[in-house]
Amino acid sequence: MVLESDFGSVQVSHLNLNDGTVEGLRLRDVPAFCVQYHPEAGPGPHDSVYLFQEFARLMEGAAG
């Protein structure tokens, strides 16, 4: 189980509402983030679009 208190220079972006475990992180010192679930698996067709848009934005910044 990963808890919010286990991290240093990161921002917790997603918490599990059932048990409070960390499901997403955003690094503060590099342009990176992660989620610990399958955003493409739904429950709805557009629920995780913002994650893919953020990833594309980060990649565009890295290429520029």
What does this structure look like?
The protein is an alpha+beta fold. It has one domain. The protein contains 1 helix and 3 strands. The protein is flat and about 35 Å long. The termini are far apart. The mean pLDDT is 80.
What brief labels describe this structure?
64 residues; alpha+beta; three-stranded antiparallel β-sheet; 1 helix
Uncertain residue ranges: none
- Can you write the helix and strand succession as a string? EEEH
Helices, by number, come to 1
Task: State the strand order across the main sheet.
Answer: 1-2-3
Brief overview:
The chain has 64 residues and is an alpha+beta fold. The protein has one helix at 49-63; strands spanning 10-15, 22-27, 33-35.
Task: Please specify the SSE layout and strand pairing.
Layout: E1 10-15, E2 22-27, E3 33-35, H1 49-63
Antiparallel strand pairs: 1-2, 2-3
